[in-house]
Model the fold of this input.
Amino acid sequence: MCRGIEVSVPRQAIAWFAAGGPWLPARWEGVHLVPGEQRNRDRWRRYWDKASVSYDRQMQFCDRVLLGDSRPWVCAQATGHSLEVAIGTGLNLPFYPAGVELTGIDFSPAMLGIAQTRARQLGRTIDLQEADAQALPFPDASFDTVVCTFALCAIPDERRAVGEMIRVLRPGGLLLLADHIAGATWPVRGLQRILELATVPLQGEHMLRRPLRQVQAEGLQIERRERFKAGMVERLAARKAATG
Done:
């Protein structure tokens, strides 16, 4: 998700290098929240509920200058019963094949409300739930496809989130990811690191992550991978090993 913020660096620079949003847990079963953590969680929910009003407009710029055709590239490969993690306002919905049975989760109820309206306008039935990417509320091996676009950059524990996506993916299923990542050259990475001084404390957004490494560490087979925009955007399709 690409969620703009107000900081002292140029707004266009933020939009260019940032393509995600905070993903703080909405389901905390078995997790003890100290008062500060509870306040922080509530603050982020209020912030993104408010930001949902302008989210689509901000995304038009991000898609045009940075993300390219990543949404259709990812979603066109989905099949069967599919889960989209961090579905936001449902901007990916027009790009899923008609036969896909879709479930979507997000942290922000307001975002989910917009996604539901978009689904109705498209004539698509979708199961939308408020849930935590780090503790998905689904049994093991529930989905044929799992999709996550431009959100791992801001999930507090992105490794745990990737592990959860793989857990709920059926054997032989496909994991589809797109995100902004550490650039291919040191000047780009240097600028990203400077931007992180604002985006991490204000938005929980990291510029230098690389989900590919976690996917490979989990043993998935990379079937397709593309990296572009000075190496700052990467999208991939990875297959979970079939059993038997």
